[in-house]
Task: structure prediction
Amino acid sequence: MFLKRISLLRENISSFSDYPFSIPAIKSLNEIELSRSTTFFVGENGSGKSTLIEAIAYQCNFNTAGGGRNNYYEVPKSEAALGDYIRLSWLPKVSHGFFLRAESFYHFASHIDEVDDTGFRSYGSRSLHHQSHGESFLALFLHRFKGKAVYLLDEPEAALSPSRQLAFLKILNHLTNSGNAQFVIATHSPILLGYPHASILSFDNGKIEPIDYEMTDHYQITKYFLNHREKILADILNND
Result:
């Protein structure tokens, strides 16, 4: 691991009543220790996962709209509101990496079309716009992710079918086993969360704390739905 700790600079915050400091998990944050080469952020929508991962990208000097240090383009509403209020602790410091922001990946693909004069070698020799959404994500993971780096992924499952989520886990495992890659991933996917060599941090219940895979809502709700599909659907649809 390279990124060891994320600390909130509480002394620099004038009010915890304003966004993003009013988010309960952020309001209670002091510091987070990263103990494994893969860390998942989980929690309900609005719990602060994306807010924190964007702030990490900002501190890494990655484009907060998505990309690395050398990807210069802008997307509205992609600023990192928390970016100036956290400190990252490294050992050793690495500067290479990538921030995947699923919701603005289209804009990143357009940016690459405009600036890539190497035949898209970093993306499987094909424009990302000439691949399906899922294919373009896998092309990124397979061809761009290499070397000593930190990879920050915000909901990578957004474009991946279940089988391709499994393919991504194989890529992740290969990269982390090399000792050259660290991942921080915000996700809702019970498939990705099942990766056995990761730590999971929950942003629910007003704090950020470790949680076991089987205790996540993602696991429990999915398992309960698969085991009781007819009952759940009947209850939901008949009470509409």
The two ends are 49 Å apart (CA to CA). Residues 162-177 form the longest helix (16 residues). DSSP finds eight helices and nine strands in the chain. Helices lie at 24-27, 49-59, 105-115, 133-144, 162-177, 190-193, 217-227, 229-238.
